Structure to design on (355 residues):
DNA sequence: AACGCGGGGAG
DNA sequence: CTCCCAGCGTT
């Protein structure tokens, strides 16, 4: 299909549909500044709109500008990110803010290549920023767009495969019109989220119905081709809530990269370790009898975690060791830390029991 | 090319 | 339960 036909059969009806049904009152659209677009795009990576909205509002309240963000401490950023997941996004966001202050005079570049080089900003996010914030004709390729394009053009094969992905990028940019670029980017995402959905797509009300090859052959459900998934492994963790006479709780900062990177977590026992031996040997603490606090399962996208949390009231034996980046925190301090969801759950359970 | 990286919403 | 979401960085 040539460029002119693509406009007539794809982009134009899509833009018309957007004018009637598209989302135009999302928080990052009012106003749609480069900074707000950037923050929202990072939060929205692999995360649904409804989940992001409250996080976005809190973030803007705390960091109204890129300079505010650059001057903050990483723990502040991670605290605002607590519960949102994929915490490398928060760390990269902070790094990018500092780089923009240092290398770009505090102004987010209006250039795809420059944006793409910044931490946490890949091809699709860079395209989202230049198209939405600067109205440039550069196409995104996210989950919504992959679904719309594979159906419309009946693209077979797993979309993450190099050859298929290259084809999808080309198609995505072919469909991007030269005008109304910001609206177009929003339009194709809205169509994917509201009409061309993974299950039960609303083809009868779809603006692209006339030319959609998947609809023509009644095989919408075949696209996009699904990945073959392996069974997820299961891990077990015994976590300790160590608290002292004052009610302070001991937490350790995780290494900067990896699972829950940079977050504050509870000490983790090795399989078969005796809790009291563990804290005496590693922390020079003595403790009262461990009490079962809570046991539950936590599901990640790449493994299952079975958690068993114990609480132990402790006394310092020698001088308290600050190894493993550990610290004692009062309850009020914990509220301003970056915590993983299971950590928050265990701690709130602890506080409910020991108020 | 495959994997690591969270957590939640929808069916 | 399963699927998948405004993906990116590393290996």
């Amino acid at each position: 299909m040539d460029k002119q036909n693509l406009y007539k059969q794809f982009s134009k009806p899509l833009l018309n549909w957007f004018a009637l049904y598209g989302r135009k009152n999302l928080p990052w659209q009012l106003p749609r500044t480069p900074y707000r677009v950037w923050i929202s795009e990072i939060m929205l990576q692999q995360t649904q709109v409804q989940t992001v909205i409250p996080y976005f509002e809190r973030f803007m309240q705390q960091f109204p500008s890129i300079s505010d963000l650059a001057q903050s401490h990483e723990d502040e950023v991670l605290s605002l990110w607590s519960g949102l997941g994929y915490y490398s996004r928060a760390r990269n966001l902070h790094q990018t803010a500092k780089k923009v202050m240092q290398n770009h005079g505090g102004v987010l570049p209006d250039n795809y290549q420059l944006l793409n080089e910044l931490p946490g900003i890949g091809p699709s996010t860079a395209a989202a920023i230049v198209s939405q914030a600067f109205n440039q004709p550069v196409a995104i390729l996210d989950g919504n767009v992959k679904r719309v394009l594979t159906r419309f053009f009946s693209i077979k094969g797993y979309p993450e495969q190099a050859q298929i992905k290259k084809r999808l990028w080309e198609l995505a940019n072919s469909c991007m019109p030269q005008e109304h670029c910001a609206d177009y980017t929003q339009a194709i995402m809205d169509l994917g989220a509201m009409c061309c959905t993974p299950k039960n797509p609303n083809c009868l009300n779809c603006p692209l119905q006339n030319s959609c090859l998947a609809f023509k052959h009644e095989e919408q459900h075949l696209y996009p081709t699904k990945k073959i998934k392996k069974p997820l492994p299961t891990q077990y963790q015994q976590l300790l809530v160590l608290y002292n006479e004052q009610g302070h709780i001991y937490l350790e900062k995780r290494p900067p990269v990896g699972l829950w990177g940079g977050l504050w977590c509870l000490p983790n026992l090795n399989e078969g370790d005796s809790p009291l031996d563990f804290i005496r040997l590693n922390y020079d603490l003595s403790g009262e009898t461990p009490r079962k606090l809570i046991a539950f399962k936590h599901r990640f996208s790449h493994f299952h975690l079975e958690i068993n949390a114990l609480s132990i009231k402790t006394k310092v034996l020698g001088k308290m060791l600050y190894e493993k980046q550990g610290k004692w925190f009062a309850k009020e301090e914990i509220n301003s830390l970056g915590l993983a969801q299971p950590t928050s759950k265990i701690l709130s359970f602890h506080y409910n029991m020991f108020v």
Remarks:
- Chain A has 15 helices and eight strands.
- The beta strands of chain A are 234-243, 249-253, 264-265, 268-269, 285-287, 291-299, 304-316, 326-329.
